[in-house]
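Figure S4 source data
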Amino acid sequence: MKDPTSPATSKASGVAWPPIAVPGQGLPRDREARPAIGGPPSDAPSLSSRDSRPAETSAPTTASDSAGVPAPDGPESQDSGGPAGEGSALLDDLRTAIGRYVVLPSDEALTAVTLWVAASHIQPGLQHAPRLAVVGPTKGCGKSRLLDVLYETVHQPMMTVNTSPAVVFRVIGKNPPTLLVDEADTIFGPKAGDKEDLRGLLNAGHQRNRPAWRISGPEHKPTAFPTFAMAALAGIGDLPDTIMDRAIVIRMQKRKPGERITPFRSRYSVPELHALRDRLADWLVPQRGTVAGAVPKMPVEDRAADTWEPLVIVADLAGGHWPARARAACLAMTRNEVVQDEQTTLKTRLLRDIRRVFDQEGGREALRSQDLLAVLIQDAEAPWAEYGTKGLNAYHLANLLRDFGVSPANHRFENGRQAKAYARNQFVDAWARYCPDLASSGPTAGVPARPTQGRPPAPPSGTLPTGPLSGPAGPRHTR
């Protein structure tokens, strides 16, 4: 059986390409006679015709994943938008096209992005508008490229980097756009400034009937502005918990040397993606009334079920192997975020405990790594004595603090001895962000936000002990 994830091929040759398309505009839409796309250049992907592609035999769904979950208009194996298998084949084509331009972190992530794009075409009939959080640890992970692909395939895209909240309030209506927000750290990061209105809009817009009230017009009347709209946000590092909790999280990574993608070029990429977008609209726009009453069986509960429900609805409409694939992706990605949350919570606990150690030691400017470890491990109510196999060590400590921009540095104490140490001023920024209830206490006034990268902190004014702060000697350094 043909692999649905393999690139689509076309036997057509010698067919003239349509005029060069402009990204974001593409070609005029003509449902009656769409331009044939064939004979691409050597680096261009080819697109199989909607009418010439045979319906594929799909893998049966398992009882544990989809038993008792019929599609809103019929059994799962029947596509309610046309002949049996048409919706499934269309999602296969979309999945292949997305995977051609972007390397996503997992097979489940590729499935989720595919279904999210399709769900944008039925969002006027949905109860929830899931966010797509496209995050990565550094630049160059493909976040912006994924937004480029989304822009050409989602329903009525609205790309923004620094748009005024007032503009977004006014463009969202009964048929809302799909918001695509690049460089989201300019909204949620330290340079956010006056963007709290946009942040609140993105939080409220996850659920229908959560309007934002503003004084508007020359008569200054209270006016309710709708906020309900699907949104994809891309940025470096995790977004705020209120966004991540409402989002399908795509954790992008840099490509490995052997991972290759097709260059995104407007002359062939835009026509191909627009053809898929139009096929999605033809199939899903007539289903908006149907999906409004759909109640699919979900493998998760609560907020996660609200977020994933639109994707599962689309999968059930498509039928074939998509209902099982969507639920498997939902479980895998939801569990992965639970693990991420637990790790984040542990790191926040570590920041709080280190703050208490610095405060208990009289506001010293630096503490030796081994002294800090000794105090942390002696806390019977903390998890550090049982962390790992032999308790928290210097390697674990540095690894847990790396995401906060904190690392040990060589520090020369007043007795002339040099040792690896953590400076208080390294933690000021992280304390203010992740445990602000403690950040205002203690002698931190006048301390710079962060030391220069790679430069050791200034010598402390006081004298630090060369041995442990209290109790027996600290644990041996483990490499």
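Figure S5 source data
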Amino acid sequence: MDVLAKLEILTDAAKYDAACTSSGVRRGFRQGYIGNTTSSIAGCCHTFSADGRCVTLLKVLMSNCCVYDCAYCVNRRSNDTRRAAFTPQELADLTINFYRRNYIEGLFLSSGVLRNPDYTMEQMIRAIRILREEYRFNGYIHAKAIPGAAPELVEQLGLLADRLSCNIELPSETGLRTLAPEKTKAAVLAPMRQIQVRSIQNKEELVKYRHTPKFAPAGQSTQMIVGATPDSDLHILRLTQGLYDRYQLKRVFFSAYVPVVESALLPSKETKPPLLREHRLYQADWLLRFYGFRAEELLDEQAPSFDPRLDPKCCWALRHPEFFPVEVNRADYEALLRVPGLGVVSARRILTARRTGPLRLENLPKLGVVMKRAQYFLTANGRMADGLRFTQDSLLRNLIAVEQSLLPQPEMRQLSLFDDAV
């Protein structure tokens, strides 16, 4: 099989992995190297540099051959699909040639488990080492640590890649035993813990010794599949909160289950991917990371799933009328963040602007406040918008109407240069 045929197979097989959208690392020009992380062929995905620019990555598997038989995975060993595997040299050559042609600016590398976890990681490490040491590639690389691989291999991978990730796959240990019995929770969490501990040690070393090699400077992330098992949004959000608290992950990614295989253990192939549910979980994840919310505030045993009609912040606001209205001229930063229609930037702008004098309602849109939502939950100088009248029922209807135009589009797919021109 030629390299182009392998590329087509292995970029297509990589499209279900969502855990690559934020690099969070800066590495500029380095003498004698090519590429940087501050600035596609098949399998294009995108990340964002620290200065906000969109960076195109080659998203590909080292191999889609796999010794595991996970029921939800298109690459499981029992599935009848075309198989391919790059050699380390082939993958390094492809990456550097695509970079030189300005198709990509970095690499996102994952793999099925070829032979065993250690062998797979060794192949990935060799490919990345060729890029770093022979081709002196200084661009962004995100690599997947394979659960079950030896700790010394995780160490080597972390010294070569900018970001590491280890997929938790399913939200519960019960789901993992049912759909992926050859994998264990302990095998998944072990490299997560190693990466966390090693990253802390590396930061301490860098303070003492300037030239210490950096270990996964962009941190680590993980991904879980949503909709393949009956786990509730509450369970998923609690797990997400726990991962942030225990392992200091940069991101937890959610991937709506796409029914690509027929199994009695899974939703039927006619089931639509739960994209809206995925969207709500990402919104809730944002609230956990940037708005000071906790999982138990957003959902509870009486309401274990998000209302698909409303974003999680509005749902929380409707359940806590005692917290509102918030007075923008007196509220602290944390209280402002809880107002629907206010974000991190607009809350900071309010704090800055009110130093020069009291704010009025007509000032707020200029500060980035989305008044279609916020008008129901705040006051300025004790006054709400003129003529604003609403009940709890009419407020719910109004917020649902605002939300409709913001829902994600149903058709989303990964870019590929193998597609027909449009």
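Strands lie at 44-48, 54-61, 106-110, 140-144, 163-165, 220-226, 251-256, 326-327, 378-379. The domain at 3-298 is CATH 3.20.20.70 (TIM Barrel).
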